[in-house]
Amino acid sequence: MPPSMIMHRRRLLIGSAALLATIPSSRILAASSAGAEMRQPGLDEDVLRHLAAAMDRHVEARLMSGAVWAIEQDGELHVATAGTFEMGEGRPMARDTIFRVASITKPVTALLAMMLVEEGRLSLDGPVKDLLPELAEPRVLRSIDGELDDTQPAHRPITLRHLLTMTFGLGAIMEFPPRYPIQLAMQEAGIAPNWVLPRLTADEYMTRLGELPLAAHPGERFLYNNGLDVAGILIERAEGRSLGEVMRERIFEPLGMVDTGFWVPREKLDRLPPQYGPDFAAGTGETVKYGPERGINFAAPPPLESGAGGLVTTIDDYLAFQRLMLNGGVHEGKRLISEASLAEMTRDQLQPQHRNDPHAAFFMEDGGASWGLGVSVTLDRVHPWMTPGRYGWNGGYGTTAYVDPEKRLIGAFFSQQIMSSPSAPEAHRDFWSHAYRAVP
């Protein structure tokens, strides 16, 4: 790869943030949903051993400290771990490790929004201005690189669909280093997409966002990320409660997701490992620890519960969410959301001009995917694991999770290694390639 491209990818993450031998250290924790141990009739055990060996190699190369992953097909579940909590030392990674999962929060926020749409508490295509008056009369830049005062009235009002498809007009602008006035203004306001979540209250966030012009007319351009934060705030205002409270009542408690939320209570902090990533500030590529001093702190309630990227969870909790999706909205015989709402959420909602936009292409999985409502939707098999109709997403803190209705497959891989470019890390590619080889 040319040095210029390497530098470009490094800058991209800074702006967009914010993967047959013995198995020396991986621990395979296999069990079916019904509780049977070890034997997985539908999963190829040789492939699973190769997968574990590949993850051990990533740990030995210090590309990650540790990881937990899961593959399930029709109730046959394989869970395994590799590495340690601390880079190169400490206790072994455990199945109940709590991870900061970043953008795989988006599907959860979108599912909750669709629940409220079903009940008439939100409208998918009605204007959001009654609950978000900051967006009542948006102005739009005449050119995405134009001066902030060179604007025109928006062609149409902003809707929840625009927020969930990330086409409402503001988000990640893929020009690095940032130089467009709107990019710099978003950074100054503290609402630019980044690996550090916004340190603002919901009202402060909306005030600052509302003071800026939109970079595109609602519905006309895909700009990643911010739409899901705004959707989370819309949910809060519709319900009169925090996003975490509504998620807990409507999703986490019904599904038994006991370790999921927007922060980790004191009694569980020993299950939250350090976060690692490249030293972007120094530009050396050296792996460093990201804690409160670098803006990543999940040990206390955040000022904004980020619907775009703020959740912490465990592999088993997130599997429960994925099973709900795969099972058409039914959990243990009880329907939580209609099949029609899930179908709307997981269908392609974009047009070719959205997907081909230079500011969107980085989020379209090498040209093989599009977006539904809060989820990436696979269109073409540009990689062996990309079955058309598969949906889910990746998290910049080192996570990936997808549901494949055709193969009745769910998979999730959690690490604590911040991604070093918008392209999937080698560990993610190894996980998905082995997962699809392991299933019939």
UniProtKB/TrEMBL annotation:
It comes from the Bacteria. Transmembrane segments: none annotated. Residues 53-417 form the Beta-lactamase-related domain. Residues 1-30 form the signal peptide. Keywords: Signal. Gene3D superfamilies: DD-peptidase/beta-lactamase superfamily. It holds the Pfam family Beta-lactamase. InterPro entries: Beta-lactam-related (IPR001466), Beta-lactam/transpept-like (IPR012338), Diverse_Enzym_Activities (IPR050789), TAT_signal (IPR006311). PROSITE patterns: TAT. This is Beta-lactamase.
